[in-house]
Design brief:
The structure holds 2 protein chains of 2 kinds.
Chain A lengths: L1 H15 L6 H15 L4 H26 L3 H8 L5 H31 L1
Chain B lengths: L1 H19 L3 E3 L2 E3 L2 H4 L6 H7 L6 E3 L6 E6 L4 E4 L3 H28 L3 H4 L4 H10 L1 H12 L3 H19 L8 H6 L8 H16 L4 H11 L3 H4 L48 E7 L10 E9 L1 E2 L4 E7 L2 E7 L8 E4 L2 E7 L5 E5 L9 E4 L2 E4 L1 E8 L5 E8 L16 E5 L11 H7 L4 H8 L7 E7 L4 E6 L14 E2 L18 E3 L5 E4 L21 H12 L5 H8 L5 H13 L2 H4 L4 H9 L10 H17 L1 H4 L12 H10 L17 H18 L6 H5 L1 E5 L8 E4 L15 E3 L2 E7 L2 E7 L17 H5 L4 E2 L12 E7 L1
Parallel strand pairs in B: 3-30, 5-9, 8-24, 13-21
Antiparallel strand pairs in B: 1-2, 4-5, 4-30, 6-7, 6-23, 7-26, 7-27, 9-10, 10-11, 11-12, 12-19, 13-18, 14-15, 16-17, 19-20, 20-22, 24-25, 27-28, 28-29
Helix pairs in contact in B: 4-8, 4-10, 7-10, 13-14, 17-22, 20-23
Classes of the chains: A mainly alpha, B alpha+beta.
Chain lengths: 115, 801
């Protein structure tokens, strides 16, 4: 159960934080706090957060791709001809790493406290 | 080890955060911080999610009231109780659709692009600042404040823009802000003034003083043949025979100075496609016995488009047309009673004066026998990344020294009409014009329009047609301002301005139509000297010929005419060129097929025309071989080249003219030799360029994004048209708005199109959706209505209460 709640929190933080300056920092911080609070195991924290966030962001962006404007294709052209699919993978990867690192740090603190 | 387990992810978190928040510079291109830009919630994905989602909105406590009904082409129809409320709504909807465009173009005028893109824009910024746009805009605003009612309207417009800006957070910024990593700033009357100055720069910021000065020296006795002020095929904007209501203002003339050292200047590119058309026919020339007015102003084609279409309805005014995002009011359009359209008059209102410095320090210059101390203005230019550089601008009584000591235009002071003090609130012009009902009100509204001088075509539902060439026209001596002038004498200053009542004007001319196509405003009888040196005649002549010979005009026929691709230049040239081809030597060669195809060509620049391609290559080769003396000698780069029109006249009338000789050959060529040499090189060109099969391939038209971001541009546009045809569409220029209005007893019926879309958001379905209709010569019917209910197909409504 705690893993599910942890997952929901980090997914929401990856998709809906709207701070210009601190979006990434907050995403990492929330992942860290959630991992700490739910005492996620250090061995799986990074992989769990990375996997869940990457998959969620990817799904969300596929949804935008199919229902949104043609902007991603134009952005892909600007970034050396990346396809929209590659942009989705790249974005999801960045988000996944951010949450993953945050969760890793939070779980490491929790483990430190427990030890 | 325990600490290391904490330290490692912490350090990785910090490093990752730093990487994602850093702007990068790769190959001189600035890459935004990836964390923000790629964020699913606030980065470009948010724009992709948001930009085409429309819903009804209610906005309260703005202090303004009204409704904006947005139809299914994203055209806003503004309903308000008065002009002040209407302009607030206009500012709001301009910003909602075009905020980045408004912001970027005014920052460009202000010389602040280095703040956004870094040092590569430094020279651009320096020139803008030295020309004095910012100071000129500030001065205009101070004048506007003296007209409180008018200024209140400008302030209402600004409040509308700012209301939208204040509603934004980073996630909502237009994509270009995210890509270039800057943020919008508050809109002020100063920015509106800057926008006006920027348009003036586009339309009256050109001159040929240096090039003509050097050309006069170089061509000597042939100068007047090659650069006639009134060509023998001129059919002026105001028809010949029009009586002027004043006598010659100045009877003296001014001679050019002979400055030296203006060498190695990069020749200005010959830009194909520049020009604009407007015309109106009265009821005697139409099937339905109603006046019809047409306009297609040709500008640099960009995305977002320069124009934004809208309708504004208040109890005192009901107007439809296109607007400039950044300026209140409708610029080109129609109301219940009148229609109007503009083309550029092209008067030379930027003159250059050679300054004689006291010594190398340039701390004083000669003026009427005295040494006048140079004044200075310090410009501080911020560059992205934190540095700031200072630029000292020297100021003289004539104006600023625009170019520094390393530039060929050094030591020249610029007197430009836009830097002269305003005498009225220019923003009143369109407010008044929008509610004009007849020719007198139209004339009165225009009288305040200072620059850039425009040919304002007019038609009204009472049957009048008129054309006013409006702008502040300097009173000049003969030849004044055509060449570099001596800056040491006040006698070389302009002698005031002509009053608006004396500007060239015609009402209901005998031929039952009025027209303009950037040809000269009047013939040589006009009692004041004005010049440009780049007036073109062919396009105007085609228009006038078509309008003269037909008396059964309808909207559909006007549509065909605006898309007419016939070239009188090609017709005139090809008749002369084909006669000179030596057919005996090519009869049995593949060249003969080319020759035959040109014989049968209708001289239309259709996209698929092979003949248009062949002619264009042939004429280009002929032109380059004729003026090889200038084109191949870098020391003569600053000499103005004779026009295509002058070259064709020589070909027809003076085939032994000395410049037909190719300097690099031992024999002395004539026009016959040049034509055949060029024909041969054309055949070779076609063989060596197999992928260029027709005119469209050669023209390679595109519509670039305003900031030249390729991904947001439309490339490889297959389109008809060329520089000297009515459909004056070159590779980067073209008809920026095609409009046809028939003024009937039941109200105006109008059709229009422009090459872009209403939304400034790249990727939006309204970003470039009208290009296909425009490219193929099709139109949209405009929904002129004062009833909200009759706008059936709508995507949203915004209510201010």
């Amino acid at each position: 159960m705690k893993n599910i709640i942890f997952s929901i929190i980090i997914i929401l933080s990856a998709l809906f934080i709207r701070s210009e300056q601190y979006a990434i920092a907050l995403q990492m911080l929330i992942a860290a706090l959630a991992a700490f609070a739910f005492n996620i195991k250090t061995k799986i924290s990074f992989a769990l957060a990375f996997g869940i966030v990457t998959a969620s962001v990817m799904s969300y962006l596929w949804f935008i791709k199919t229902t949104g404007t043609g902007l991603p294709a134009m952005i892909g052209n600007i970034f050396t001809g990346l396809t929209v699919a590659n942009l989705i993978y790249l974005t999801a990867f960045i988000s996944g790493i951010s949450s993953g690192l945050g969760a890793w740090y939070g779980s490491a603190i929790a483990q430190f406290r427990n030890e | 080890m325990k600490f290391f387990k904490i330290l490692l992810p912490l350090l990785l978190c910090i490093a990752w955060y730093k990487i994602l928040n850093k702007s990068l510079n790769i190959k001189n291109n600035s890459i935004p911080p990836l964390g923000k830009f790629f964020s699913p919630s606030i980065g470009f994905w948010h724009n992709a999610w948001r930009d085409d989602r429309y819903s009804n909105q209610e906005i309260s406590q703005s202090g303004y009231k009204g409704n904006i009904v947005i139809d299914d082409n994203n055209v806003p129809h503004i309903f308000a109780d008065d002009t002040r409320n209407a302009y607030f709504l206009q500012g709001y909807i301009h910003a909602k659709n075009r905020l980045w465009q408004m912001d970027f173009s005014t920052r460009a005028a202000e010389g602040r692009i280095s703040e956004i893109v870094g040092g590569r824009a430094l020279e651009f910024d320096k020139v803008k600042r030295r020309k004095g746009f910012a100071e000129s805009a500030r001065n205009s605003v101070e004048v506007w404040k003296k007209f409180p009612e008018s200024f209140a309207l400008v302030e209402a417009y600004c409040a509308g823009v700012n209301h939208y800006i204040q509603s934004l957070e980073y996630a909502d910024y237009p994509i270009e802000y995210k890509l270039m990593d800057f943020r919008p700033e508050a809109w002020t009357p100063y920015k509106t003034a800057l926008f006006h100055k920027n348009m003036a720069d586009v339309l009256c910021g050109r001159d040929h003083d240096i090039e003509l000065t050097e050309a006069k020296k170089y061509f000597d006795a042939d100068f007047n043949i090659l650069f006639p002020e009134n060509s023998n095929i001129l059919d002026p904007v105001i028809p010949r025979g029009t009586k002027w209501n004043f006598n010659n203002v100045r009877k003296d003339s001014i001679t050019a100075t002979n400055p030296t050292g203006f060498i190695e200047r990069d020749r200005e590119n010959r830009i194909d496609g520049i020009g604009s058309n407007n015309w109106a026919v009265n009821k005697l020339k139409t099937v339905n016995k109603n006046p019809i007015l047409c306009n297609d102003p040709h500008l640099s084609l960009t995305l977002p488009s320069i124009w934004f279409e809208q309708q504004i309805i208040t109890p005192n005014s009901h107007v439809y047309g296109v607007t400039f995002p950044g300026i209140p009011g409708v610029v080109i359009g129609f109301n219940e009673h009148i229609a109007w359209g503009v083309t550029n008059a092209g008067w030379d209102v930027m003159d250059w004066y050679a300054i004689q410095w006291q010594d190398k320090s340039k701390k004083a210059y000669q003026y009427d026998g005295q040494w006048i101390p140079t004044e200075y203005r310090i410009e501080k230019i911020k560059i992205k990344g934190g540095t700031e550089i200072s630029d000292t601008v020297k100021l003289t009584k004539w104006g600023p020294i625009v170019y520094d000591d390393t530039h060929p235009r050094k030591d020249l002071a610029m007197h430009w009409i836009i830097n002269d003090p305003s005498t009225s609130c220019e923003m009143d012009v369109f407010t008044d014009l929008n509610k004009s009902k007849n020719v007198n009100e139209y004339r009165s509204a225009l009288s305040k329009f200072p620059y850039p001088a425009q040919n304002f075509a007019f038609a009204s539902d009472n049957g009048d047609i008129a054309l006013t060439v409006q702008g502040n026209m300097p009173i000049k001596s003969d030849q004044q301002g055509r060449f570099i002038q001596d800056g040491s004498s006040s006698a070389n200053a302009w002698h005031g301005l002509l009053t608006a009542q004396n500007n060239p004007f015609v009402l209901n001319p005998y031929r039952n139509f009025i027209s303009s196509a950037n040809q000269k405003s009047t013939d040589g009888t006009f009692p004041n000297y004005f010049n440009d040196g780049d007036f073109r005649d062919y396009r105007a002549n085609v228009i006038n010929e078509l309008l003269s010979k037909n008396n059964d005009w309808t909207i559909d026929k006007m549509k065909e005419m605006q898309f007419n691709n016939f070239s009188m230049k090609a017709k005139t040239a090809i008749d002369a060129m084909l006669k000179l081809v030596d057919t005996s030597t090519i009869k049995n060669s593949p060249h003969y097929t080319l020759y035959q195809s040109l014989q049968n060509w209708n001289c239309n620049y259709d996209s698929t025309s092979r003949e248009a391609l062949v002619f264009d290559v042939w004429f280009d080769a002929l032109y380059k071989n004729t003026w090889d003396e200038l084109l191949q000698d870098t020391m003569k780069k600053n000499i103005k080249l004779p026009s295509d029109q002058s070259t064709i006249e020589l070909l027809k009338n003076n085939p032994r003219f000395r410049f037909f000789d190719i300097q690099s050959t031992p024999i002395k060529e004539t026009a016959v030799d040049i034509v055949n040499i060029a024909f041969d090189s054309t055949a070779k060109y076609l063989l060596t360029h197999p992928l260029i099969k027709n005119w469209s391939d050669k023209k390679n038209a595109s519509i670039s994004h305003l900031a030249r971001i390729d991904g947001f541009s439309v490339k490889n546009l297959v389109s008809s048209g060329a520089a000297d045809v009515i459909n004056a569409h070159g590779s980067t220029f073209g008809p920026s708005w095609r409009m046809i209005v028939e003024l009937t007893d039941q109200g105006p019926i109008a059709y229009a199109i422009y090459p872009g879309g209403q939304s400034g958001a790249p990727g939006s379905k309204y970003y470039s959706n009208m290009i296909e209709l425009w490219r193929t010569g099709r139109y949209r019917k405009l929904n002129f209505t004062n009833s909200k209910d009759s706008i059936q197909s709508r995507i949203s409504q915004i209510t201010f209460n």
